[in-house]
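A note from the maintainers: we've had questions about how concatenated examples are separated. There is no special marker in the raw files; a new sequence line simply starts the next protein. For clarity in this README we add a label.
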Amino acid sequence: MQPISLNHIAYPTWDSAATYRFYTEVLRCPFVAAIQLDQVPSTGDPTPFLHTFYGLSDGGCVAFFEVDGLPTPQPDGVPTWIRHLALDVATVDELHEWRQHFLDHDIEPVGVVDHDGTWLSIYVFDPNGVRIELTVQTRELGEQDRTEGLESLQRWCDERGLPLPAPVA
């Protein structure tokens, strides 16, 4: 038993209108739903919020919470390239079309970046500072990738004195 797929990933927004424009006009994601409540269902906290959802082709969503008075986070020292949302596109040609589409919307993408001959990607930021990666996988990952990846992970952990459980089959 393991999770089936990503239902949604949620980020904060400080401007639901700008987020709506970016995700519907620039990323071409359909607006799916919004939930406005005065209390957080999972915690009971009395926090009025708007929770918006933008659809992906596979049925998953990118979602946002706007909460009145939520302070803008201060930089925490984590480089901006680490936290990002990677979204698949179908082909290399489509990736290049997306690059031009961003330029047409006065958004300067980074890339096309080749990641070890496995992925080609371009990067932009949304209005909330979320780094968006559009990527196409150019080859399937196989058993050799898994084996080499586990060896790299083991070396990394060994060099830092971190215990690593035995690999799960």
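[label: protein 2]
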Amino acid sequence: MMIAKWRYVWWPLAVVNWCRGILRNRLFELGVWKSVEFEIPVVFVGSLVNEPAVSISRYIQRLLKGALHVDRYKISNYQLEKEKQKLTLYHWPLNATHTFCTTHRVLGLSEWFQCNPDTPAFILDGEFAQNEIRPQFRLLISDYNRPFINDAIFPVGNLQEGKTGAKQADAVLIYNSPQNEGRVKLERSLLPYLKKETPVFFISNSFDALNSFNSPEEIEFIADRPNFERLILNILPNANPDSE
């Protein structure tokens, strides 16, 4: 998909946004901006264009049984409701005896883990860029019809971070994918932007399906579904999916 020509007038601002992203990542790498690593695995499920995929992150939650799923919606009695207070980004389920911080991710997750030390992992939906939490695994999601390699930094395009940010991905999942040879061509085009041997998976689900709250079992992998599950399960300490 081509970028509209009129949007190129915003290139100066796009360059500023690109520089801000590079500087942000560098400050986290140097430790100028502090980040926290938890005792349990943290999984980021997100994209460079800020497209949350609830079904994918909930599918991973199912694989990592007992994992806490964190997203940008209010959770009340495990029923998802749209958040009315936009300044509050994250919420956790409330139980009968404890409440958890909803305005600071590190504090909220720390409080949760203190009360629920058997939680095997945290799954953060809609996260990918470096921030105050250091994940053990990053899953990058992209649209087959408009992959991040064909997009540009905002406001020229839709990328919230430069294409070089894809180097942080531990795996890539392409949605809205047809079952044809175009998948192989796209995968080859992605490789220069990824770490060496980063696996790429394809599913046929559309963007609308990924952002609905359908059963994660309805995710339709075109190939390598067992390999995707094995990859996720291996982030758990002492996991050995091959023995099952």
